[in-house]
Amino acid sequence: MHKSERLFQLVNLLKGRKVAVTAKQLAEKLDVSERTIYRDIQNLQTSGVPVEGEAGIGYLISDCDLPPMMFSVQELQALLIGSRMLSAWTDPDQAQHAQSAIAKIEAVLPSKMKQLNDSLPYYALGFNHDETCQAHNKALREAIESKNHLLMTYKDAKEDISERTIEPLGLVYWGGKWTVIAFCLLRGAYREFRLDRVVSLSVLDSHFEHGAEKNLAHYIELVKAAACHSENT
């Protein structure tokens, strides 16, 4: 567990408690030594977190506003909105990480910011994001990270089915539909594939490498150039 994550958990364990928690109890919950807990308590106190108590007696955090991690209200709102979108529109693993991030942000929000968070005008609903699409999303994300080739069965807009071996480069969300940007070995060029038209995916053992003209950034530059040319003609 990284130190930053441990400090977040420590704050959550101490905040709003009426009874002090001993360093031994905290160490057992976080699976670290008591010495580590004492160092973490000192780090929190130095950072301005109002941790009360002492060694041998226990610790707690009084019911007061905590420092908002040096983020502005607008920045925290942006982080929360982005996390909500990830939670609703990606695969279950990413959704769990996003929900964990939301919980950590909310745990240290001052009361005024909590009220603003509750009244955010943005919602991300994922009820039309089916399990098959989520599974494809996860398989593609993992293949992009590991640079594995994928064997894909795909149904196009005319419902013609083809089999492609692709090098997945990135996932793009178009406000309702996910698209994988890939280098298609059959066509020898970039191609876009909608996830809701993917019939099946198989991760292959072979790997690929990015190149100067085969990566997501290069693809985006080509799209920008094409859009600019279209506007000027």
UniProtKB/TrEMBL annotation:
Residues 138-202 form the WYL domain. It holds the Pfam family HTH_11. Residues 6-59 form the Helix-turn-helix type domain. PANTHER family: PROTEIN PAFB, PTHR34580. This is HTH deoR-type domain-containing protein. SUPFAM superfamilies: Winged helix' DNA-binding domain.
